[in-house]
Amino acid sequence: MIPRFRPIIGAAEFRALFSAKSERVAAFEHAFADKTGVSGAIAFPYGRSALWAFLKAVGVTGSEVVMPPYTCSVVAHAVALSGNQPRFVDIQLTDYNMDLGRLEEAISEKTRAVIPTHIFGYPVDMDRLTSIVANAEKKYGQKIWVIEDCAHSFGAARNGRLAGTWGDAALYGLNISKIITSIFGGMLTFQDRHLEAEVRKWRDRNFKAPNSLTALKRRLYLLAVYPAFNETLYGITWWLQNRTPLLNRLTKAYHLDDKVHFPPDFRDLMMDVEASVGVAQLQKYDRIIETRRRNAAWYDANLPESDEWVLPPILDGATYSHYPVRTGKRDKLVAELARHGIELGTLIDYSVSDLRSYSGIDDCPNSRAAANSMINLPLMVGDKKLRHIRDAFRSIA
Ligand SMILES: *Cc1c(COP(=O)(O)O)cnc(C)c1O
Question: Which end of the chain, C or N, has fewer beta carbons within 10 A?
């Protein structure tokens, strides 16, 4: 079975898992800031914790926070749990990003932050977004924070400028389904050293070291992930995922969580051992992104056309955290490709604006349409598997 995603972990990460070095979190923060083209980075146990902490640290509460509905539900959860109300701006179906033509009307005197997601590695037009926000700041006479959600857009750029370098801060997720991983983990990056220092102080006052049980759990998790994504063993993983509830934490329940709550360790600091894994991953960052771009372009040139699916756009500067294809026959395609030994992902299969906790705030038909039709193809695969996937699509086109 070719997995729908595969963390690129090997001997270096395995060794990092048993390294006893200290001060690794600071080393990871520095290396991460370098790689993402910013002046500083602060590590968190999850991306959601990072966003929650940012809103708390700068004092955004009792306010509205504008975001796209076609993103990870934990973004809305962080907004809600920091005492704010999300407002959803529908997406455009050309690149699945927030439709900036609708942004101005969504901002009001209650808005204190905007969180664009660069979904699937497609960079949002941040020049346009920041100018809309600047106008709104003037109109309402107050600061509106811009936090770029880069969890899907490591290395993505628009007009040569990296995603994550426009906003007041940028948010990254580092769980095993992301471009690079530190087991769990998240990062906030900054260009303003004063703001970074303020948020860092807040983190250090409000986060604590994980207890030994949590620390052990995080280690064991990577130990379990290592064989789970091994080529030959993945058939077993797939079976466990699809036929038993054992791995729900690894897969569905991890993201599609309609309840507004965070895991119990969401305020436990990133561990040195996790940071060591992250540092090892950064060595592979450029190669991973290059492979994603190359394979997305290959699919675009080689997958057959059909009126049963819509291939994704190939855009300048995109990094393809996923290769998102839309189809009206999702279940059928997923089942047929599974028979060819290919696992399709179905990310993102919900619109946050339709989740029970958030429904009735803003209606977003484009987001719902994307959610109901999206599949994504394996991207971190070699040429032979690419051809096998192409042939499978040809046989059903
Ligand atoms: C993964 C992800 C996050 C952060 O998720 P955590 O699991 O909390 O690290 C945020 N936004 C998007 C779009 C994501 O995919």
Answer: C
What residue numbers bound the domain in which 168 lies?
11-206
**Residue 272 lies inside a defined structural domain of this protein:** no
User: What is the 3-state secondary structure of 184-252?
Assistant: EEEEEEECCHHHHHHHHHHHHHHCECCCHHHHHHHHHHHHHHHHHCCCCCHHHHHHHHHHCCCCCCCCH
User: Which DSSP category does 185 fall into?
Assistant: B
Check pocket membership of 152 for ligand 1, CB cut-off 6 A: yes
CATH of the domain at 66: 3.40.640.10
pTM, rounded to two decimals: 0.95
Instruction: Assess contact for 154 and 172: CB atoms under 8 A.
Output: yes
Mean of pLDDT values over 131-147: 98
Q: Report CA(74)–ligand 1 centroid distance (Å).
A: 6
Contact 322, 372 (CB under 8 A): no
The helix/strand/coil state of 355 is coil
Token digits for 116? 């664009």
**118 Cβ below 6 A of ligand 1:** no
pLDDT digits (tens, 9 = 90+) for 303-362: 999 999 999 999 999 999 999 999 999 999 999 999 999 999 999 999 999 999 999 999
Nearest-atom index, ligand 1, CA of 173: 9
Assigned token pair, 355: 């989740």
Farthest-apart Cα atoms in the chain, separation: 59
48 lines ligand 1 (CB under 6 A): yes
327: which 2 tokens?
């189809």
Look at the chain and report how many structural domains it folds into. Answer: 1
Is 66 contained in some domain? yes
Q: Do 84 and 67 form a contact (C-beta atoms < 8 A)?
A: no
Pairwise CA distance, residues 18 & 7, whole Å: 19
Considering the domain boundaries, does residue 357 fall inside one? no
pLDDT score, position 224: 84
Specify if 223 maps to a domain: no
